[in-house]
Specification:
Elements: H1 2-24, E1 32-37, H2 39-48, H3 50-55, E2 59-64, H4 70-76, E3 82-87, H5 88-98, E4 102-110, E5 114-116, E6 131-135, H6 138-150, E7 155-156, E8 169-171, E9 177-181, E10 195-198, H7 200-203, H8 210-213, E11 216-217, E12 226-231, H9 238-247, H10 250-259, E13 266-267
C-alpha cells in the first residue's frame, strides 16, 4: 500500500512539472501571428498591414483588448504571439511585478500624454484645490505626475523617478488633489474633475486631440515609446521581424500623417 501511495505522489509531481513546463513554453510562430492590441491607434495600424504581411506569407490576427493587464497575461500564457499597446517603461514594470520575461521586438510610435479639462482652457486657469485625475497603474501614474511637473503645477522629489506617486510631491503651490483612476475610465469622468491626464490610446477614441484639446502636452522626446512585445526568444522570429518592419513602412507613415495630422501619433525611426 505504501509503495502504491509513493508511486501516486511521484506521478502527481511529474504531471505538475510537465504542466508547468508546458505553460511556460514559447508559442511557436509559423505562418499565423496573433497580436493583442488596444483598438486605436494600435489595432488600426495592425489592420493596415494585414495585406502586406499576407504577401510575405503570414496571416495576421488582431485580438482586441480594452485594458492594460490582460494583453500581457495572454502573451505570457501563449494565447497570443505578441502584443502592441504599451510603452517600454510599463512593460519593464509589469515584468518586475509579475516575474514575466516579456521583451520589446521594436519601438513603433509615441502617443503624447496630455492634461485635458472640460472646465478650463489654460493651465493658468486651474484653481487652488483643483481635483486632477491621473492613471492608477504605476508607470502611467508616474508619467502623468512628470507631465504635471513639466507644466509647473507640482515638483517631485529628485529621486521620484518614472514610477512617482502623489506622495513624492514636494511642492504643490495650487494644493492640487488627485484621483487615481483606471486609465480606460479617465475620458468618462472628465466632467467630474477639474482636469485629467489621459493616455493617447484612450484619448483618441474619445475624440480628444492632444495638440488641440490638451492644456499641456508631452514633448516628442518622450521615452514612452509603444512597442511590439513578445516572450523572450521571439524577438528575432522572422514573423515578428516582418511585423515590426511592416509597421515601419512608408505606407504606415503616410497613413499616420493623414489620420493623425495633429501629432496624436508620432512614429519613431
Amino acid at each position: 500500500m505504501r509503495k502504491i501511495f509513493v508511486t501516486l505522489l511521484v506521478l502527481v509531481a511529474l504531471t505538475s512539472f510537465v504542466f508547468a513546463q508546458g505553460a511556460n513554453e514559447t508559442r511557436e510562430i509559423t505562418d499565423t501571428i496573433r497580436v493583442g492590441a488596444t483598438p486605436d491607434p494600435h489595432g488600426v495600424l495592425l489592420n493596415l498591414v494585414v495585406d502586406d504581411l499576407a504577401e510575405e506569407g503570414y496571416t495576421l490576427e488582431v485580438v482586441e483588448f480594452t485594458d492594460y493587464v490582460t494583453p500581457n497575461e495572454a502573451l505570457e500564457a501563449g494565447e497570443i504571439d505578441a502584443n502592441y499597446f504599451q510603452h517600454l517603461p510599463y512593460l519593464e514594470s509589469f515584468n518586475a511585478e509579475r516575474g514575466y520575461d516579456l521583451v520589446s521586438a521594436g519601438g513603433i510610435h509615441i502617443e503624447p500624454l496630455a492634461l485635458y479639462s472640460t472646465k478650463y482652457s489654460a493651465i493658468e486657469d486651474i484653481p487652488d484645490g483643483a481635483m486632477i485625475a491621473i492613471p492608477n497603474d504605476p508607470t502611467n501614474e508616474g508619467r502623468a505626475l512628470l507631465l504635471l511637473q513639466s507644466a509647473g503645477l507640482i515638483k517631485l522629489a529628485d529621486d521620484a523617478g518614472l514610477e512617482a506617486v502623489p506622495q513624492d510631491i514636494v511642492e504643490n503651490p495650487k494644493n492640487l488633489r488627485f484621483r487615481e483612476i483606471e486609465a480606460a475610465t479617465l475620458p468618462r469622468i472628465m466632467e467630474d474633475v477639474d482636469g485629467a491626464v489621459i493616455n493617447g490610446n484612450y484619448a483618441i477614441p474619445a475624440g480628444l486631440i492632444a495638440t488641440r484639446d490638451g492644456l499641456y502636452v508631452e514633448g516628442a522626446d518622450s521615452p514612452y515609446v509603444n512597442v511590439i512585445a513578445v516572450k523572450s526568444g521571439n524577438e528575432t522570429n522572422p514573423a515578428i521581424l516582418a511585423l515590426v518592419n511592416a509597421l515601419k513602412s512608408d505606407e504606415v507613415r503616410d497613413y499616420v500623417s493623414e489620420r493623425y495630422p495633429n501629432g496624436e501619433v508620432i512614429l519613431v525611426d
